[in-house]
Write a structure and sequence with these properties.
By secondary structure, the chain is an all-alpha fold. The chain has one domain. The protein is 81% helix and 0% strand. The protein contains ten helices and no strands. The chain starts with a helix and ends in a 9-residue tail after the last helix.
Length: 284
């Protein structure tokens, strides 16, 4: 039974006192909660700077790579980029204007694109490794893994090519729902392997499974958001700023990819800590 004197005392409290009491109760509930673990991981990673730098590295590697492949092949590689972003017909047409309409075989531009694409991709792999090392509390290995970065890049490009080839038949056979399930399974498998490979096997497959699952969920969420937001953004930016506006929209998309990767790894690590997965630890 409630104490009448306590009830009278609570009723007599000032709004400021009640606010302090409520804030203290919220702090007590926050201490040791999954939300505190999650925010501690994000703070250790310097979330905003990390995703911006990762997005810049993606921009440096992806755009030269698209230019390179569009110069060497008859297939319009930028259509795959538009499909991944989820652009409508008008948005895809604007993006295609960033690249050559027909193949070219001039040595100098091809060599320059190859150099920038290679350097950018190695930077992306290195940034990814640093993110995962911090999330899972591992020491940094650095440039000793440069061959590992190159291998990862090769697997990434091979995966993108395979996905481009099979996406149409899968959609025709299973519909959009089936394609979504196949995409989710593929993204989960790719990030699961990516974490294990870039961490040089220092973290167990079991400990990496939940981060891969969550990252894939966030990836599907980004695809859904992109299909709603980016067509209008690219069309608007193109009208206002011209070609540079399109690049700005792509930069935002690349930063969003960085956010998906960081949030997925951190949320998965938080999930591990709550489930007492062996080897789970705080970030350095």
């Amino acid at each position: 039974m409630d104490d009448p004197s306590s009830a009278r005392q609570g009723a007599g409290e000032s709004p400021r006192s009640r606010a302090r009491t409520l804030a203290a109760a919220v702090r007590r509930r926050f201490q040791g909660s999954p939300a505190q673990t999650f925010t501690r991981h994000l703070a250790a990673l310097d979330f905003t700077n990390t995703i911006v730098l990762f997005g810049a590295a993606l921009l440096t590697s992806v755009l030269p790579f698209i230019i390179l492949l569009s110069s060497l092949a008859n297939h319009r590689i930028d259509t795959d980029l538009s499909r991944h972003i989820g652009l409508n017909t008008q948005g895809a047409r604007i993006v295609s204007q960033l690249f050559r309409a027909s193949p070219a075989h001039s040595i100098a531009p091809i060599a320059a694109a190859l150099i920038f694409a290679t350097a950018g991709t190695i930077a992306v792999a290195g940034s990814l490794q640093v993110i995962y090392e911090r999330v899972f509390g591992q020491p940094h290995r650095g440039l000793r893994d440069i061959l590992r970065f190159a291998t990862w890049a090769g697997v990434l490009f091979g995966t993108l090519v395979a996905e481009s080839v099979i996406s149409g038949p899968v959609r025709a056979a299973t519909g959009f729902a089936g394609e979504g399930l196949v995409t989710y399974a593929g993204v989960t498998a790719f990030f699961w392997w990516t974490m294990w490979f870039l961490l040089a096997g220092r973290v167990s497959w079991r400990r990496l499974l939940r981060p891969a699952i969550v990252t894939a969920l966030f990836w599907i969420g980004l695809e859904l958001f992109s299909s709603i937001y980016f067509s209008g953004a690219i069309i608007s930016d193109s009208r206002l700023y011209g070609t540079i506006g399109v690049v700005f929209s792509l930069m935002i998309w690349f930063i969003a990819i960085g956010a998906v990767i960081v949030l997925g790894a951190v949320a998965g690590a938080t999930w591990n800590s709550r489930k007492a997965v062996p080897g789970a630890s705080e970030p350095e």
